[in-house]
Amino acid sequence: MNSNNTPSSSAGGPGSAAADSTAPPTTRNSKRPKYSRFTQQELPACKPILTPKWVISAFMLVTVIFIPIGVASLFASHDVVEIIDRYETDCIPEDSRKDKIAYIQSSGDKTCNRILNVTKHMKHPIYVYYQLDNYYQNHRRYVKSRSDQQLRDRDSENDTSACKPEDKTANGSTIVPCGLIAWSLFNDSYSFSRNNQNLSVNKHGISWKSDRDHKFGKDVFPKNFQSGGLIGGKHLNESIPLSEQEDLIVWMRTAALPTFRKLYGKIEVDLVAGDVINVTLQNNYNTYSFNGKKKLVLSTTSWLGGKNDFLGIAYLTVGGLCFFLAMVFTIIYLVKPRRLGDPSYLSWNRNPGGH
Amino acid sequence: MKRCVYINDDDLSHDIYCDNRISNRKYTVWNFLPKNLWEQFSRFMNQYFLLIACLQLWSLITPVNPASTWGPLILIFAVSATKEAWDDYNRYLSDKKANEKEVWAVRHGVKKHIQAQDIHVGNMVWLRENDEVPCDLVLIGTSDPQGLCYVETAALDGETDLKTRVIPSACMGIDFDLLHKVKGLIECPEPDKDIRRFDANLRLFPPFLDNDVCPITIKNTLLQSCYLRNTEWACGVAVYTGNETKLGMTRGVPEPKLTAVDAMIDKLTGAIFVFQLVVVMVLGVAGNIWKDTEARKLWYVEYPTKGPWYELLVIPLRFELLCSIMIPISIKVSLDLVKGLYAKFIDWDNKMVDQETSTPAHAANTAISEDLGQVEYILTDKTGTLTENQMIFKRCCISGTFYGNEIGDALKDEDLVNAVATRSPDVIHFLTVMAICNTVVPIQRQNGTILYKAQSQDEEALVHAAAGLHMVFVKKNGNVLDINFNASVIQYEVLDTLEFTSDRKRMSVVVKDCQSGKLFLLSKGADEAILPCASTGQQTRTFSEAVEQYSQLGLRTLCLAWRELEEDEYQEWSLMFKEANSALVDRDWRIAEVCQRLEHHLQILGVAAIEDRLQDGVPETIETLRKAGINFWMLTGDKQNTAIQIALSCNFVSPEPKGQLLLINGKTGDEVRQSLERVLLTMRITSSEPKDVAFVIDGWALEIALKHHHKAFMELALLSKTAICCRVTPSQKAQLVELLKSCEYRTLAIGDGGNDVRMIQQAHIGVGISGREGLQAARAADYSIGKFRFLKRLILVHGRYSYNRTAFLSQYSFYKSLLICFIQIFFSLISGVSGTSLFNSVSLMAYNVFYTSVPVLVNVLDKDLSERTVMQHPQILFYCQAGRLLNPSTFAGWFGRSLFHAIVVFVICIHSYAFEKSEMEELSMVVLSGCIWLQAFVVALETNSFTILQHLAIWGNLVAFYVINWIVSALPSSGMYTIMFRLCRQPSYWITMFLIVVAGMGPVLALKYFRYTYRPSKINILRQAERLGGPILSLGNIEPQSRAFEKEVSPLSISQPKSRSPVYEPLLSDSPNAIRRSFGPGAPFDFFQSQSRLSSSYARNCKDN
């Protein structure tokens, strides 16, 4: 926006209090409307107009602000070191790959070893995420299938009307936590080692503090969970209250996009370039029936969050476009100047009488 | 059908007719809710919202809490219903007050106090001075020995003068003590709403005068809501009661008017509704397909293999609900609110206060201000609207001698004063007719001066003028008039009054000179009504010349005539007159016929010319509005020449050579057709030239044209910008409005008198001038103003601003709803087409009702151009007239903008909040704040003038958005607990917002700037000019000033007009004879020549500058 003026005089510039302002308040009559600048629609107003100078400066200003921010964002994004390992296919033995669903649904050991190479120095804390693709946590059926009352309050245990079809077990006892979201809790697990030394993953404090304090009750314990015929995901330890089941709390923060990362834990030591990290993972979670991908992500963080070039690129693009527009407008302005407010542009001044 | 009223019969009429309980109420306590709801739900938009709200009760398909729709819906309905209930309660209170008023009435032969609502038909009601008449009464007795009483009918017809009412002849002389014992039968018509007619008969039963059927007219009645004045008491029989009175029948809720803007909004709403259905269908089908192909594989969704029978409907219905916000529920409330404010601005406007009478402008209809800005045709009355309707006697011509020509005021003309002093018989007769041939009531005031109460302004002017010439009308005592002439009192007894009607165009009285006992017929009237009645020997040529000369000056003329009557002739005629007066069928027509039998062989005394001055600023107003592209039609009851003269002097038509007048006339269908065709031909030829062509038509030709040549006349109406219709009746005025309306023009009718009411009610906008002819027109009108010149401001300032503001507000309302709706649609594309709502219920409701409606409401203060600029360049109104600011193409622009902004917001948000940040609640708030930021900047970009209030609303709203969300985020029970605090701490949130604003507004700004600078609209140019203060400001001033000079000069005298050469010829006059012929032999004078004369004098005036 440009506002081409010092907050100017009242409507209409010079001499607007002219001929027809006949409102002498001397002969007040009760029928007469009260005089105020509001009722007379005469509140002082500034009327900015789009002059070339102001529009071009506005675009230039945007350019000047956007390019540095874009550069800074890109740098921030590039400072983030990220190791991504896609494992959902590789963790299935060659001979089972023809029928992945059967493999994942079979019982038995599904341990899988992965090796990650650290190419750049990674400062602690290093966040460990699992990333799911093509997973619709935002599906209407899914996103509504939870009971916040039940999670928060032990007394509302039976408040499961929204949780269908995972509200009650076959024999009618209430499931805590109920609903599809909790039922489908992610159950792959990872353990890391560097040079045969165990790398401990801190799984405390990975969820929002506000969720632990206010959304998940300290006295609410899992009950009848994953006890039905159909096992969805991870089992929960029935002796730990929900407020400490951080994996569940993280999972219950549903993602809005079909591709999302959820925090698994934090590694509290630095990783140096050249380190080789062995990951022992339990590949339990079924993403095969809908061709979902599973990825393990180790990432540092910056002031802007994780590795995401989008903002930087967008800022540079927009800044560039604004610069381009400013240039184009300047050139047009110089090549083909046009006097603003020239009365000769008014057709009725050219052709008096006609319209 | 007849109604028989038995006077003082308590038993007979009770059950047949209703009692006098007045009820203006629309509702009762019991039917209020159902009836009001029914009325509200008869509108499509409301039905739609109700359907949506009901669907939302089905939790399987509702994306959000049903409260998000039910809340606003109930609020809207509650507001409307409360308003209705309040209005109805007030009506109830005023009804109750009127119903419970104590009146004196006769019950079982005894006079007692009863409540007004207990009056029954046939009851005798007593009134005292200054009492309000409780129902329609037939007068039976008054305190006046002559049986007269005076009433003020202001509440009924708006006329403030006193009217005389007289008791029927049969009741004359009944003793006061016997009055309440009167028995009789009144035969009267069924109740109707004509307040000027009442044709009934009265027969009294013995012992009173028997077997004498006595006619009763409106003169013998006291109508409900009138006031008894100057009369000690009066009594009458109730004939119509309660809601069946004349007033009760005229009452009625006028049809609500729908503005063009509203119609357009409805149309666009319909289009959006269709679009919504298409979206719903497409998404519904896609959703069902996705469900069957993909969602079944998602084990975590646990789709049942076999769903209920309505399974296929669920997803489309979900999308219907998700998309229901496309049609903003807030638009109705917002529009009602701002329309109310537009009306208030009109009421408040100090520049539209008539300084003389301190009458402010008033908008009675608050819903149609936008239409003011889209007016294409103005149909205006002449007398009292363009002119002041303050009649002053200026000149006269008595037996061939012109008085007042030199100094312009006959009262100061020494010749006339001398003639009066020397008692020149013609002059004395002339003055006598002036003084007593009327229905004026003189009222002696305390200080000895005399106040004249007249129904007609002309009569008042004549009586005043006669008084100025020492013929003073002093007293009216029943039928006896006292005239004080040079200190001697002359008495006349009025025997009969042959009243003025618009058909007869003359009135006469039969008087008896009380001294000599001679009978005289005194007449006055329009020249064409009087001159043909002249006695055969008399030369009327000088008079018709005088009439012509005066009407060229824009003076109203009246011919005065008299005749001495023989006693026998009068007696014979009197019987016929009495008979005609008591006729039940066609009474008017029969009276007119009888009157004609007396009004012949008149001796013409002279011509009186009365000036009706133009109101201040009329020429400027008309010129400005014509520049604004508004076409004017003048509809007047006045004669052609006067009308044309007034039209010239107020810029209605331009003088030669710029303008041209074409005349349509003729007495027969063929003549009218020929004349019409000739004019049409001329019109078609000249329509390409920049020439003001106007046609003139009189009432007679108009009648024929409308009936037989409707199509040709319609074409004429389309071609011509200006028309003068003279001698038209009220119903013809309404017909012309109807004609223009049928051509899809927006019409505004302006008038001041009762004869304009129909036209005012018929037109899209009715404007009444609260003038001297009473408040009747102002009451019926949508807007009332004190003076014609305020019309300029009403249209150019209020109408234009209202249109601009509504155009923005309505389109913006759709923009913001579409914006959030598109985002929902995009989100459903990435959420498995399952109909998940990205936003929570609270946000959705607050978005529509609060976040986005407050800033735009303050837009009612927006002014694109200053009032001054608009007044200088009225042509700019074209943008409103043509609907340039609100039409499908501008709407498409807003539609495109909302689509673009939805894409910008959505794409930026899902990319910058991807992966680990893609938490549902967070993303939802990021997207919502993106929308809020954008809409704040959109409003800011579209605002033309920022007052402090606009800044407060736009930026304050943005701050309020955060404050509200912080508060909600602080509540642990809310779904978005802590979300807003988390977001506001993240740099990426602010960077995203900034990106959204620039990416969303940059292209819009660039496009707007490009259009503004290189493809500017006239509005843009004027805005720039206004801002930069270029030479344009002086340019507009030139013309109005020169106009002012002309006005000064125009009343110049008209010496020897005939010597001028004709310059006002119609283009296509094949031969002058052809035109002459078309006038017909009966035409009193030659229009062709008079045209040339008047235009030449006008042209000369211009040269004199």
From TrEMBL, chain A:
Protein name, per record: ALA-interacting subunit
Membrane-spanning segments: 54-76, 313-335
Top-level taxonomic group: Eukaryota
Position of the signal peptide: none
Annotated localization: Membrane
Cellular component GO terms, alphabetical: endoplasmic reticulum; Golgi apparatus; plasma membrane
Family: Belongs to the CDC50/LEM3 family.
Residues covered by region (Disordered): 1-37, 145-169
Family annotation (PANTHER family): CDC50, ISOFORM A, CELL CYCLE CONTROL PROTEIN 50
Low complexity bias (residue ranges): 1-27
Name of the gene: LOC113690932
Composition bias type Basic and acidic residues, residue spans: 145-157
Topology of this chain in the membrane: Multi-pass membrane protein
Source organism (scientific name): Coffea arabica (Arabian coffee)
Keywords: Membrane, Transmembrane, Transmembrane helix
From TrEMBL, chain B:
CDD domains: P-type_ATPase_APLT
Pfam families, per the entry: Cation_ATPase, E1-E2_ATPase, PhoLip_ATPase_C, PhoLip_ATPase_N
Domain P-type ATPase C-terminal: 778-1017
Catalytic reactions on record: ATP + H2O + phospholipidSide 1 = ADP + phosphate + phospholipidSide 2
InterPro entries linked: ATPase_P-typ_cyto_dom_N, ATPase_P-typ_P_site, ATPase_P-typ_TM_dom_sf, ATPase_P-typ_transduc_dom_A_sf, ATPase_P-type_domA, HAD-like_sf, HAD_sf, P-type_ATPase_IV
Cellular location(s): Endomembrane system; Membrane
Name under which the protein is recorded: Phospholipid-transporting ATPase
Gene encoding the protein: LOC113712358
